[in-house]
């Protein structure tokens, strides 16, 4: 791992280089003046960085016309556009996308996993799918900048291991990051899926600096919290584990964590499916649930409303802790649209102080089902999240 | 307000200057080599900064001996040591301390306020006490670098106004910061008391970068959350308002916020006093409560245990959102020591996932009753918290 002296010129230079390269990541050719505007860097700084990056073969510089004037135009060198692999390892399947910094997806693939899979089987499936999607994208191993794997459980990103044995037992103690790194020969990041969703959303156009929370509502419920564009991971990756807020200890449903009344037992997509299956006394798959909701089946509507209100209350608790500007929801229930969002908002407004109720926006993820995978792709292309984490802790003295 | 182009050399220089000055804030004379070690800056960078700061009269440079070798020794110019005023404006009293960057308190004072005071009366009392403590410290108005006022309510630090009308109605809409700035002629910061407590604790020796939560338990309950040494204030200052987590909606106590079963109705110092007074059927002051607890009165012990367990559960909810490394408790109940801390820990361990229960340390504030005032003093001496906030939002691209 590269170590950079905090506060040094080389750290500043590295940060400015990244800022500049990320402004060029969509592959467009833009003028140096525009680059200065986009990055907030001084024109002289941009000139120097462009010259050095062109020498290193990262950028192509040419003459062109911008705003009617002859200008120095800059573009990412095509061969240097980074490729990454973003993956999602769930309870019953694994997904992979290969794509570029510009957000173009080159290949996608997924595979089923037997529920309750053995750790080795999961690691092998992840390696196999990463290899498959790389080959289908026409990439050599060396062309892949990095691989990031989203998992629906708390992760200590420093070690790439899972920290809460009760949440995804199959993978606890499995050195997933090392296995993948050895098999693929590339840098690997393992990170919580909701955190990666939040990462994806902080990078979208128009995202403000105010705290942003992404909530993935599926089998479980997890939140990714970003403050000033940075993920709040907690002491060991358990920040945002709101699926286990004890929303109603009086309820008798025992959660997989061993406690009762956890938010995920009453507010998750799985809780909607289970409650509906129970009420209708038949087996239901996720697709059946969507059909019933879309058809306005009264039992389905009521079950969805109750789950939405419960989720809203849980989000209210979260908001009393971090006071987000925006809460973005993801996962299969987003397909129900306002029929779900309305009850979530009602539950939320009742659970928070008036100022928070008035200010906080709750929306459905514009990235849909791809939110976590897009986040994993972004993370796979990042310079080195560990360096970023360490640089951060050295900035204490300039911030309150 | 000074604006600095983000990522520019001057922003880096300012950050490095602050880092260097803060290493010298205790007034000691130390060698340049030691300064480089303490700040993590390159020796050449330290040399340049010391030369420039000495030219500006901020530092005094001389020859001395460090580690047995002749060395260039550096010290803060005595006349340049900053003085600040830290204040606390509560529901029934106002406190002020005048002190130095080195943490020396020069004068302290406090005054009673009538409960339910009028806004003007509070503003006048704050101005009068700030003036009094300044004069008792022997300082001219110009010698005061700044004033910070801690208030037990959510504050929007950008405007210095209170954002939740139900929490401290007397001050809502009062331009406290402007009133003080006009009357005292110095920069003024108004900030939530628990946030300032967290600020004080992040600056103590040995504080790690892991999330730290300071919880002030008094009439109400508020938390200050610091991640990587930075305060999480939220979209409009309501982060950490855990006193209004709906811990038990089935309870009939109506909270001042208009809802039922809020944590502060069952876990605050005031709730202990009220429950004990009710059970013993007599009026009790705070001092009486402490006497009964110290004497081991069985009703007092039980009431304290119940309140501690309720607080612990609320802290568990908070921890599922931010996963702190350490939770530090403050306020009058700290005087009860383990008789309170034990039940808090029991309630906490039952409310969180096993990994969080195992890792999170819960302690009593080593700064005791002064935690908020020390935090206010630190804030009064800070360069400009608004600049810091703005610089922060520009660093998104170097962090994940």
UniProtKB/TrEMBL annotation, chains A, B:
InterPro entries the UniProt entry points to: ATPase_NBD (IPR043129), ROK (IPR000600), ROK_cs (IPR049874), WH-like_DNA-bd_sf (IPR036388), WH_DNA-bd_sf (IPR036390)
Pfam family, one: HTH_24
Family, as annotated: Belongs to the ROK (NagC/XylR) family.
The protein's name: ROK family transcriptional regulator
């Amino acid at each position: 791992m590269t170590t950079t002296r905090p506060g040094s010129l080389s750290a500043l230079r590295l940060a400015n280089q990244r800022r500049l390269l990320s402004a060029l990541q969509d592959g467009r050719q833009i003028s140096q003046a525009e680059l200065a505007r986009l990055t907030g860097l001084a024109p002289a700084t941009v000139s120097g960085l462009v010259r050095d990056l062109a020498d290193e073969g990262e950028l192509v510089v040419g003459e062109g016309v911008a705003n009617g004037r002859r200008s120095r135009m800059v573009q990412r060198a095509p061969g240097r556009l980074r490729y990454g692999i973003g993956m999602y390892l769930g309870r019953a399947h694994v997904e992979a996308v290969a794509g570029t910094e510009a957000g173009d997806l080159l290949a996608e693939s997924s595979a089923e996993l037997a529920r309750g899979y053995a750790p080795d089987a999961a690691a092998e499936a992840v390696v196999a799918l990463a290899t498959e999607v790389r080959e289908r994208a026409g990439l050599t191993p060396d062309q892949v900048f990095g691989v990031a794997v989203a998992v629906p459980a708390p992760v200590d990103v420093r070690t790439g291991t899972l920290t809460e044995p009760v949440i995804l037992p199959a993978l606890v103690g499995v050195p997933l990051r090392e296995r993948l790194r050895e098999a693929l020969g590339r840098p690997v990041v393992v990170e919580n899926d909701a955190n990666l969703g939040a990462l994806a959303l902080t990078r979208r156009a128009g995202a403000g600096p105010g705290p942003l929370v992404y909530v993935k509502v599926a089998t479980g419920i997890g939140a990714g919290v970003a403050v000033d564009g940075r993920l709040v991971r907690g002491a060991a990756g358990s920040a945002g584990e709101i699926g286990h807020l004890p929303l109603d200890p009086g309820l008798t449903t025992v959660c997989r964590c061993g406690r009762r009344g956890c938010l995920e037992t009453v507010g998750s997509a799985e809780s909607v499916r289970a409650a509906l299956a129970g009420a209708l006394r038949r087996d239901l798959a996720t697709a059946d649930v969507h059909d019933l909701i879309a058809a306005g089946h009264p039992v389905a509507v009521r079950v969805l409303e109750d789950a939405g209100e419960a989720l809203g209350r849980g989000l209210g608790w979260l908001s009393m802790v971090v006071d987000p500007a925006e809460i973005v929801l993801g996962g299969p229930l987003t397909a129900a649209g306002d029929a779900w969002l309305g009850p979530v908002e009602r539950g939320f407004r009742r659970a928070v102080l008036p100022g928070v109720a008035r200010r906080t926006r709750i929306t459905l993820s514009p990235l849909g089902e791809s939110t976590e995978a897009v986040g994993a792709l972004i993370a796979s292309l990042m310079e080195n999240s560990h360096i970023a984490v360490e640089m951060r802790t050295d900035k204490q003295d300039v911030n309150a």
